[in-house]
């Protein structure tokens, strides 16, 4: 799956008074039809995309689907498969922030409403970069609640991951063959010297917490104590162990040059630059979870020389091939995003209007050198990879095949598998599958 994305971050800053709406800053609300046309011109079949949560989800069970109806009809008419991003670093004003304990259940209702309205959608990222969202909002104090304690971080993380899990359950009720691609930042912390080893090891366990909880992976004793010491209860923790939907998931790993960190003895960190790289760090995550992998985000600024982004694309693609050649089931690659972004040089903390040349196209919708390079890469590799490894094929149907009998059969099998799993968990005898009628009724 070759993919790109429409940058749709929307956290709040300045005590919640200012929303950093990247769709607005990057001109997508005005140019969305052109943006979708550019996706087709690139030969990209998959688009990470989602409706702006703050203008769509107006209150409990109250939605304005007008923009989503237009845009998702546009994607479907162009036969672009969306990977639907329902929550990207922010919540509606009426929710407040990620400290709100009502967020998980309310979000699940939002996810259910979306899935019911767009039943042809199969791929989802319910909550984007759960670890980064909690870290920047509730530990670094940059976004949303702008808090800076371990307790606020654990609270945000618990609510965010629970929202993701409940959202997956709600979507599966409407679309039993849904596949969830967790877009999560793949991090690593390097000790500056022996005095920093303990702190680096601790941070290298914290980086896994979002996916540990999401996949029902039992944490180590130090992390268990850390969670309980900072407000998570035993009941909260066991919710994640007992609601494991790992078998519906692809582990999406995001990697940027800023994903590796140098840890000082006092616990402070700074960017280390690329030391291990995507393939090594992805190997660590795969060893922990054993799931199919997708490279779900990367980019680099075009730079003064004009070719820095192109060279980074080549390096990341080489890492994808290295992961595959090492025997890991990697199913896709993403350059994020389609167009340049705005104010990510300050991680959206400041509202300066600074254009970051990270896109395949600039904000005038002119293709950048990395866009040309990505289009060539897709043309050259699209037909080669599936013939070399069956694990590069995912049971996903494009929009123009969503009403086919093959899709209905897949959904019936998925429903039966879920009933069997539920019955087994409850100690009951599973029921037989219902035959599919020739009319699909």
Structure description:
With 441 residues, the protein is of the alpha/beta class. It folds into two domains: 400 residues, TIM Barrel; 38 residues, no CATH class. It contains 16 helices and 17 strands. The protein has an eight-stranded parallel β-barrel, surrounded by five helices. α5 packs parallel to α7, α6 runs antiparallel to α7 and α12 runs parallel beside α13. The radius of gyration is 21 Å and the shape is globular. The chain starts with a strand and ends in a 15-residue tail after the last helix. It comes from Deinococcus hopiensis KR-140.
Key attributes of the depicted protein:
Beta-glucosidase/6-phospho-beta-glucosidase/beta-galactosidase; three-stranded mixed β-sheet; TIM Barrel; GH; single chain; hydrolase activity, hydrolyzing O-glycosyl compounds; 2 domains; eight-stranded parallel beta barrel; Glycosyl_Hydrolase_39; Glyco_hydro_1
Task: Say what the CATH topology of the largest domain is.
Answer: TIM Barrel
CATH class of the largest domain: Alpha Beta
CATH architecture of the largest domain: Alpha-Beta Barrel
Tertiary shape: globular
Number of domains: 2
The value of Rg in angstroms is 21 Å
**What order do the strands of the largest sheet run in, or round the barrel if closed?**
1-4-7-8-9-11-14-15
Unreliable residue runs: 429-441
The CATH superfamily of the largest domain is Glycosidases
